[in-house]
């Protein structure tokens, strides 16, 4: 299998959000320049140079200074030919006209912006550094620079958030000059500020029913707009789906570069060392910083094919499954598929099986049904 995609992790943030459990560090006093050097060294060992998608995420890549950003962008361009989608994540208040023009100059054609909400009180509660006005300015900056694709992240099921709050944010996003929206319900993750607040009784979460209602509203509202749903949490105008994320959902291979990054190359899944200093040291010592790696069993690969593929609206292609694993989807999962169809959670269309809207609401329960006993 040819690796056609790469993910680069920038683990630095100007401020740590209350809900975030990604591998990230407050940027002040961090060895950022050494980290970029280590990243460049790690990328230099990649066997593939021609890529169809590149995704730079975090943390917050736009937390880098102009000089640091240019060094990274230049190195990426020298090492890879990116013949397709090239995404950078950004915080609205950090996406200055100068930074977005720099990204554009080096071939970045997609920006994914962490907006989360347009409600000022909720932005403060989430620990975000931007104001509502920064969102409009950032989209304007990206549009002016000629960035072809702009995506906004929105969250729902937040503390103190009503359905009306979420609906207002969604309407504001839909009126903007963007072509992609990702929307996720809050998951309370250990090691986050929100989790600690919740354990101490200082944070009250909306009930699960309201979360499900918000998600159903999201699907309904987006269905009535110029955006179409193509994955459980992702909506796009025609021609603007995230090609990079499809690589994950189609269970294809990709490089993962940087501290805490995960990759899937030559049939092996791996995860890099998390702490920045340990990552830098490991790269200096032997050019790689792999913490764990494993080759999935056949059963694990088939499970992944199902619960990753079912995230997409198109569902899982039975013909592709048979070609990939030399056995039919029905032979392996036939009874499970029938049961889930009878429960109104799956539907079969041609060669594809896909989630119903009800199935999307309780997606994780559906995915668990495809776990095989080794």
Q: Biggest sheet, in brief?
A: 9 strands, mixed
Overall geometry: globular
Number of domains: 2
Helical amount: 40-55%
Q: How much strand?
A: 15-25%
Average pLDDT figure: 91
Which sequence of strands runs across the widest sheet? 9-10-8-7-6-5-4-1-11
CATH H-tier superfamily of the largest domain:
tm_1862 like domain
Protein name: Heme chaperone HemW
Domain Radical SAM core: 1-225
GO molecular function: 4 iron, 4 sulfur cluster binding; coproporphyrinogen oxidase activity; metal ion binding
Family: Belongs to the anaerobic coproporphyrinogen-III oxidase family. HemW subfamily.
Brief sketch in words of this structure:
This protein has helices at 32-44, 66-79, 97-105, 120-125, 132-145, 163-174, 193-199, 208-223, 243-249, 276-286, 298-309, 318-325, 329-342, 357-361, 363-368, and strands at 5-10, 12-13, 25-26, 50-58, 81-90, 110-116, 149-156, 180-185, 228-231, 234-236, 255-257, 262-265, 268-272, 290-294, 316-317, 346-349, 352-355.
